[in-house]
Amino acid sequence: MTRDTRAIILQTADCLVRTRGYSAFSFADLAESAGIAKASVHHHFPSKEALALALMDDFMERLRKMLLHIDRQHATASGRLRACGDVFMQNFESGMLPFCAAMSAERSALPRSLHPGIHDVYQLELDWIRGVLEDGRKDGSFAPQISPEVMAPLVISVFGGATLTGWGLQRRELIHTAFEAVFAVIERPREQTRRRASGKPAKRKTPGNTEAGE
Questions:
Q1: In terms of residue numbers, what domain contains 169?
Q2: What span, in angstroms and rounded, lies between the C-alpha atoms of 39 and 60?
Q3: Is the dihedral of CA 63, 65, 68, 73 positive or negative?
Q4: What is the DSSP string of 173-193?
Q5: Per the domain annotation, does 190 fall within a domain?
Q6: What are the pLDDT digits (tens) for 90-115?
Q7: 160-192 per-position pLDDT tens digit
């Protein structure tokens, strides 16, 4: 077996978690979806718990790389936060739930060994968003009166919660409206005016790995 086979297994498992749920697929389902023998899955992952732990580690690494890429590609804090929101939107448009939202929904059914990983993913996202909000107050793209400590949980809740609601109702515009509502609170009036004048508030192209987005 090769590392490529392992990567294919992880990529397929990620898709199945986001579309069916962790509890809803077996190794046989995984092997069929990946186009490989079931024995190949067992060769790399002796149990589903081992697979899930590797999947969580893989997602964390991709998430770190994606956030770093966003940091490098966008000069303003507003641009970085909007790029993060775009990742959630692109996952929705690809028919996939946010990874950690899908895992968190089944937390009581997951092996306890996975709980720390879910915590770490959300903490990483919260810390990053908090840092972006602090940067935005400094570079003038965000309102100076906002509290990063208070707003960071709100932002991640809107990104994830609106995506889940949009998934349930199959309404993309609902997600966009929710995202813009939170930006209306965070961004300085001049930043909002500039975006309206540009005529491009609805959809932006986001660089980076959209598969990692929460």
A1: 56-212
A2: 27
A3: negative
A4: HHHHHHHHHHHHHHB-HHHHH
A5: yes
A6: 999 999 999 989 999 999 989 999 99
A7: 999 999 999 999 999 999 999 999 999 987 555
